Amino acid sequence: MLNNYHSEQKLYIVRKTALIIGSGLGGLATALRLSAKGYKVCMLEKYYQVGGRLNQLKKDGFTFDIGPSFFSMSYEFEELFADCAIDNPLDLHELDPIYSVYFEGKKTPYLIHKDIEKLAATFGDIEPNFKEKLANYLGKAKEIFHDTEYRIIKRNFDSLWQYALAMLTVPIKHSPMLFRSMWKELQRHFSSQEVKVIFSLVAFFLGSTPFDTPAVYSLLNYTELEHDGYWCVKGGMYQIATSIREILEESGVEIHYNTEIVAPIETTDGRLAGFSDQNGKIWTADVYVCNADAAFFRGEVLKRKKYTEPKLDNMQWTLAPFTIYLGIKGTIDNFYHHNYFLGNNFEAYANKIFKTAVSPQKPYYYVNVSSKTTPSCAPEGCENLFILCPVPDLRFKSNWDDREELANTIIKDLGERIGYDLLSNTISRTIFDPIDWRDKFNLYKGSGLGLAHGLNQVGALRPANFDEKFDNLFYVGASTIPGTGLPIVLISSKLVSQRIEKAFPNPYHSLLKKHSPKSMPEALV
Ligand SMILES: Cc1cc2nc3c(=O)[nH]c(=O)nc-3n(C[C@H](O)[C@H](O)[C@H](O)COP(=O)(O)OP(=O)(O)OC[C@H]3O[C@@H](n4cnc5c(N)ncnc54)[C@H](O)[C@@H]3O)c2cc1C
């Protein structure tokens, strides 16, 4: 309850307090939004620094972004800062080409540009009438994106019923795309195997293969190829986390590291009174926001029956990352910011990697060289390589004793394909296998992007951003709505903040509108 009273000449207000569990991008963005609205925010983080998966590794003179290396829908960052009346501190850089794709046995990569003329030049020889076919394919994808953006993606749902009604407002003409796979949709438009494979890579961002992913997700091709392209941040992706952390600290938000929430504190009548951490310390607030995985936290910490281990195991999870951070002596040509290295057995590989207990013999992987755009990430005359190989999560492959062997296979293969002896020019080498990813950030069974996005795990069918039992507990991040990926997690922060402002309005904010923020602190308790 708010204590709001005049005493002599001063107005005393108790601000609503918000405790945010986890400082991934979802937690940071929610902290920014709530503190801009006058809530007194405190954050707890299990790791030793902010960012969650959007984190950084500094080693042997090299700096690596450990997870995300690019993003789409860059305007979501503009919107976050604009909503909080803060100048955007990030120097965003649009990628061109947006990525390159190397197929096994081919020396030169396909360069994927947003510019349609350049893209047509890339595929002119292998796909007749490419421009017309692409316009047709992306035309449909664009309609799906804009027909669902505000009706489904950027919306809170209070019930299944409300979600079902919202789905009915999406034009019926898109319904065949729910029942057809993305691969089938690509087959309807393109004949070249390379074009189909390249455009289907986005399905892996959702945690599935293009053979299982519904064709509606071709909207991701629209976001990458036409709408906003792909972006990175000058100075490295970790600038996102550090810039927001600095703003939060300046506005008085406390962040406690190495602090893991392990259990709720309930009152005798079943209300949430706080949370306890691994040392038994109790943390209380008016409102709680969980940025830890929304499904796993409900099972592990809240002990909900719907989220026991067998039930979590039955859900669809995205692939686990196997990541290698290499500091290399020498500069390597022909690399772009964002590069895929694929084999020639796409369908067989894609259908096997999700559920196998053996490491791939001929792995498909992704390489990012951020020293190309931010030279300070590597000592002079050196490059920093981030290699990401999607692998099965710990449900399917729990033993990673073969990690050095798998890393050597990948590094040797990459060296041969780019014509540079990486193994003998390695100065620094770090590997994170799915066990590391699980243990560092509480990612369920090491799944990299959280819950997958099949039609049974989206909208109101995804773990909600409000708690089923406690009315002062909310969720933000990749495994609640709308889903995973940096811009989508920013939308998640907006949706949860709207819920909190509605359920726990903060009168301080209406005063903030009338007075300058600098004149306010004196009036606070
Ligand atoms: C290898 C990799 C590459 C990726 N690449 C891209 C990319 O290029 N582009 C893109 O858009 N997305 C990418 N993603 C996805 C993106 O990183 C995530 O969708 C996004 O960062 C999720 O943010 P979040 O805030 O939901 O969760 P997280 O980043 O997981 O943050 C949750 C935080 O909560 C903390 N926590 C968990 N449990 C507790 C607890 N009990 N108590 C206290 N703290 C707790 C964790 O330590 C963590 O810091 C990638 C992910 C991975 C793993």
Q: End-to-end span in angstroms? A: 14 Å
Based on helices, strands and strand pairing, what is the structural class? alpha/beta
CATH class of the largest domain: Alpha Beta
Assembly context of the chains: single chain
Tell me the overall shape: globular
Major sheet: size, sense and barrel closure? 7 strands, mixed
Can you tell me the CATH superfamily of the largest domain? Answer: FAD/NAD(P)-binding domain
SS elements, strand count: 21
Radius of gyration: 24 Å
Looking at the overall shape, the CATH architecture of the largest domain is: 3-Layer(bba) Sandwich
* Low-pLDDT segments: 1-8, 516-525
Helix content: 25-40%
Largest sheet, spatial ordering of strands: 9-8-17-18-19-16-20
